[in-house]
Amino acid sequence: MRVPVQRETVRAWGQTESLFQPRRGAFWVFVVLTAFGTLAVVDLVTTGVGLSADAASLALVLWAVYTLPFFLVIWRLDLLEPEPVPFLAAAFVWGGVVATSIAAVANDATATIIAKAGGTEFARDWTSAIAGPSTEEVLKGLGVVIVVLVASRQVSSLVDGLVYGATVGLAFQVVENFLYCIKQIARAQFLNTDSIDAVSDVFVVRGVFGGLWSHAVYSAIVGLGIAYFVVRRDESSVRRLAVAGGLLLAACGLHFLWNSPWFRVSSIDALLPKIVVAGVPALVLLVALVVFARNREVVWFEDVLQSETGLVRPEELASLHTLATRRAACREDRRRGGRRAGRLRRELQQAQVRFAVALARADGAPSSAVEEARADVAETRAELDGVLSPPIPSARA
Amino acid sequence: MAGGEGARLPSRARRTVIGLERAGLGATAVVVCVVLLYLVALPAIASLLPDDAGVGGKARVLDPAATGGPRITSVRIVPASDWETEAGNEPGEGRLHIGNDGAQLAVTALGTTASAPALLERLRRAVVDDDEGARFSEAAAVQTYSGLVGLAQTFVMRDREGIVAAFSRGPTGILVHGSWLPGDTATSDAVTEMVRSIELAR
Predict the structure, then answer these.
(1) Any CB–CB contact under 8 A between A102 and chain B?
(2) Residues 191-210 (A) with a CB less than 8 A from some CB of B
């Protein structure tokens, strides 16, 4: 098997391709599976709306609102080279439509196999711990693989893999939770209990208490492993495969732990030990991987801008690395020159990032995009300098 | 050919007969194989494995004729995968009694023209006989996947929760009595699914 790869030692950072790639087989696999998944998910959603339009609408609104802040956090993970919206949308569609619909079939089949092979008692205790990780982590990971196969330049750094993995996982998480609400609405209708309460219960348990260490985190870990395999061509295939496989196993292990009967709880009070033992470690691992991946991406960013000290001063370059240092720079300018100065600093930072990406894409060739970005930086800088150091009025007799 | 004889085109430029780029096709094939594994192979393996332990997944046919009814209609139900038949009952006798870890479900097919409310009252009395303090929800209309409409009530006893449901169509009546340990929502889900799988078959 040969995967199209981007050497991290060759400049792929900042490059982009179109999502529409009709000459690539992976594009058509994505199209066909999206059509299949959409039909399956729409069928389930229609069923839920038919049962109780109010409760289904509440579930839809709750999970849509829930998605937004998480998506913004994921999007901002790649401060230096934000991923293009069409590819993020494709990753979201894979997670929410393709992976969920295939997982529904695979999980049912796995549950039956476990029951038949292991007996009823074993199946009752272990089905969700075995079926969930073994099907869902792989299916979500395939979403990142598809992005690589459709447009390999989109995954040019470890952070890219992390962002696409987290996006796939977030979509899987919210659509799965929405479908779980539909199931509970059906149950409530059948048992003549309150459908709205059923939706609220699912939201509290799966969104509030289980949301931070769920699919988005597992898939971000898997996505980083796939990106490692794709971009780290300076290392041996065995090592790259070991890292990618190791991170997949880690995600499966964390998912297994969360679903295992060791931490099965019947009340919200009992969730705390489960969160501490099976949830927090996943988040800690992800944070460590984010720090590692960002440090590598900074190297590319600085490489692109190192000869542009007139437009991006060394201290500004350093402050662009993290959200915290960016905000600190904005606060400092606001203190010195008021709110307008703070706003201009933020605009300058955004213009400098766009400039870096334009430079990387041009790769030394003449480019109108580079010139526009250059002019944008220069103009914003002049405006900021004017606010921070207003010209002294000339004294007149 | 540009580049001279034997020169290879860049991988992105080499195409298959249908115009697809050869680069990445192997990996795409692996993706397709994994998807097929989950969509086709796993369900096939699941259906091929022998089912010795439980009754799960297989439709059970209950014969109302065994309880005095006409042999016109039979009742089908699909038990959940991890439930087992309780000792001393035969589906062919018109009654299916299955259990799983303290939970029980009994489905009886009757030859009767009694209405669903009358059958439900019969089930209610049986629950109250067990526990005079049993509390019931309002009776509500329920519908199975096959469109069979009946009545159901949930109940709470001293040490159990459960559901009773009754269906009536023509000369066939169906009585359902399920119970489980308090708070066991997974089991109540499973019971609900099984009740919804009930259908009449000629």
Answers:
(1) yes
(2) 191-193
CA–CA distances in Å: residue A109 to residues A210, A258, A261, B37, B193: 25, 21, 20, 11, 17
Backbone angles phi, psi at A341, to 5 degrees: -65, -40
Of A33, A110, A123, the CB nearest to B42: A110
- Put simply, the answer to whether B142 touches A119 (Cβ < 8 Å) is no
Question: Pick from B28, B45, B82: which is nearest to A29 by CB?
Answer: B28
Interface test with B, best of A190, A195, A241 (most B CBs within 10 A): A190
The burial class, CB within 10 Å (0-12 / 13-18 / 19+), for A324 is: exposed
User: Is B38 within 8 Å of A266 when comparing Cβ atoms?
Assistant: no
How many CB atoms neighbour CB A361 within 10 A? Answer: 18
- B84–chain A Cβ distance below 8 A for any pair: yes
**Global ipTM:** 0.83
Give helix A85-93 / helix A158-191 axis angle, nearest 10°. Answer: 40
**How long a stretch of residues is chain A?**
397
pLDDT in tens, A268-300: 667 788 888 888 999 999 999 998 888 878 887
pLDDT digits (tens, 9 = 90+) for A41-66: 888 788 777 778 889 999 999 999 99
Structural element, H or E, at residue B97: strand B95-100
Give, as one character, the DSSP assignment of residue A393: P
| Rounded Cα gap, residues B104 and B94, in angstroms | 17
pTM of the model: 0.72
